[in-house]
Amino acid sequence: MTQPFSIAIHGGAGTILREQMSEELKASILADLEASVRAGHKILLESGDALEAVVSAVKVLEDSANFNAGKGSVLTNKEMVEMDASVMHGKELNAGAVAGVRHIRNPIELARDVMDKSNHVLLIGEGAEEFAFELGYEYTEQDYFFTERRYEQLLSMKEKGLFALSESKYPDDKKYGTVGAVALDQHGNLAAATSTGGVTNKKYGRVGDSSIIGAGTYAENGNVAVSTTGMGEYFIRKTVAGDVAARMRYLKEDVHTASETVIQGELKEMGGEGGLIAVDGQGKLHFAMNSSGMYRAGIDVNGNLSVKIYADE
Ligand code: ASP
């Protein structure tokens, strides 16, 4: 008998309003979400490892300009991209992460290589890139990441003196478009991956939760895998992904209760808008958000696909 397996992905949570979403943009986002979850699911179906599945799902979203990761990353105050990413494998609690990388097309691959090929967990900036180029990564020019849309967003944030997205010019202006994936494979392994461009107009080497193990990403076999999205300054202080895992481990809460308690509880009271995706040791998927929407998709243990945007769906 085959063991259960399942996967969930997200493309960011936040204020996503129906009236501001064109049919064309919606169709394009839904297509990307489905392509991502299917890419990861295919690997699970072929008996591949959960980590392979989450990395390949995230890569699909990093390669799309629709999300704030890889190609579609937001711009810093200095008009460039600086990306953060992390992965975790639940079997031996191995993890890898990068922060502030500027010339890496798929930061999620580099995070996995930090886990597999270095003695460290988190590499930053130039050092992380030096490691990448030694491994044979291609130097990706900043031009590859530049989109007119992100440039206009940056100008509007600069004008308002804000560093986070907070007023809408685009449907996802108040949306934290980080991407992530969690999966359970047929061998009982749980894994999580998260990748982001961070927040528009960030300065001084700001790093969010997406490269922090225990905040943006966590995976522990037999328990849960979690990937988060939202304002990193809150998610780091509430150690969101780690807190969900701890509640399940010590309080024996189920994935639904633990995720909702964290996302709808103190995090929300502090002002931490956002959400998370999680999968437990039996493959049960959960999507939690305290915002009006979260781009998300899943294929459950019965092979059923769901692709959603709004919180009330
Ligand atoms: N969590 C990310 C950060 O703060 C933003 C996001 O979720 O889009 O860098």
TrEMBL record:
This is Isoaspartyl peptidase. The keyword Hydrolase applies. Keywords: Autocatalytic cleavage, Hydrolase, Protease. InterPro entries: Ntn_hydrolases_N, Peptidase_T2. The record marks 177-178 as: Cleavage. It comes from Vibrio brasiliensis LMG 20546. GO terms for molecular function: hydrolase activity, acting on carbon-nitrogen (but not peptide) bonds, in linear amides; peptidase activity. Substrate binds at residues 206-209, 229-232. The keyword Hydrolase applies. The active site is at 178 (nucleophile).
